[in-house]
UniProtKB/TrEMBL annotation:
Residues 61-146 form the PSP1 C-terminal domain. It comes from Enterococcus columbae DSM 7374 = ATCC 51263. It comes from the Bacteria. PROSITE patterns: PSP1_C (PS51411). InterPro entries: PSP1-like, PSP1_C. Pfam families: PSP1. GO terms for cellular component: cytoplasm. This is Stage 0 sporulation family protein.
């Protein structure tokens, strides 16, 4: 077992693990760490704990130190300068006639590098833009192309539910979401109703998917012939979460509700 501390660089970013050494760190502590050959400010989200070495990356770097008040002032100054740099970069993108959308600009804590996040439909030749930006800001420039889900995560906003986007508030990593999940949950397959601000399928389709999959295994399929306490009938409606089955019985105009424990699937010849 290895003692580690989990940190995030951004509010809902991926969790990275570092060695705490002999120091005890608390939740929400601000710390300085080394990442990609630059010093960065990070927030502790998992205080000192032991983890199996097999579950961790090969190299666990030590935390440099707890951030001091001066370090926090420096970080705030970096954020202010990054906002100003955003406007400068947008003008340069227009001047170079590049088909790209600038999303965010950030400095590493030690200002050894500036990262410009952007979206684009294809590959962009931004070599001249990098030279231009480097001559203005006098530091190493990195342009990082991101997807539309990452853009929504950075910018934030309100989802169709009226709440702040999951990806920008607590989801550290994006989960695979498929149209099959919407089908299993009986949702409308209208893209406008099951897509988030990013235009992709909503992340929340994944939240209850395991429960729906379990229910589907326990219950008969739509249209299946079943044996009920009142005779044989055909399934016309399913409520997977409550395990309720509506069955159309011969001679009855209105379908009758049963729990899945009350019915049995009628075996077909040859099964």
């Amino acid at each position: 077992m290895v003692q580690v501390v989990g940190v995030r660089y951004k509010k809902a970013g991926h969790i990275y693990y570092f060695s705490p050494g002999n120091t005890q760190y608390k939740y929400q502590d601000k710390v300085l760490v080394e990442s990609q050959q630059a010093t960065c400010l990070a927030t502790v989200v998992l205080a000192n704990r032991e983890m199996d070495e097999a579950d961790l990356p090969e190299e666990i770097k030590p935390i440099i130190s707890l951030a001091s008040p001066n370090d926090l002032k420096q970080a705030a100054k970096n954020e202010e300068d990054a906002i100003a740099a955003f406007d400068v970069a947008k003008k340069k993108i227009i001047a170079h006639q590049l088909e790209m959308k600038l999303v965010q600009v950030e400095y590493t804590f030690d200002r050894s590098k500036m990262i410009f996040y952007f979206t684009a439909d294809g590959r962009i030749d931004f070599r001249e833009l990098v030279k231009d930006l480097a001559s203005i800001f006098k530091t190493r420039i990195e342009l990082r192309q991101i997807g539309v889900r990452d853009e929504a995560k950075i910018l934030g906003g309100l989802g169709p539910c009226g709440r702040p986007l999951c990806c920008s508030t607590f989801l550290g990593d994006f989960m695979p979401v498929s149209i099959k999940m919407a089908k299993d949950q009986g949702l409308s397959l209208n893209p406008a109703k099951i897509s988030g601000l990013c235009g992709r399928l909503m992340c929340c389709l994944k939240y209850e998917n395991d429960e729906y999959e379990l229910a589907k295994k326990e219950m008969p399929d739509f249209g299946a012939e079943v044996q009920t306490p009142d005779g044989k009938g055909r399934v016309v409606e399913l409520n997977l979460l409550s395990r309720i089955v509506k069955v159309k019985l011969p001679g009855k105009e209105i379908a009758v509700e049963y729990t899945h424990d009350e019915i049995q699937k009628v075996a077909k010849v040859g099964e």
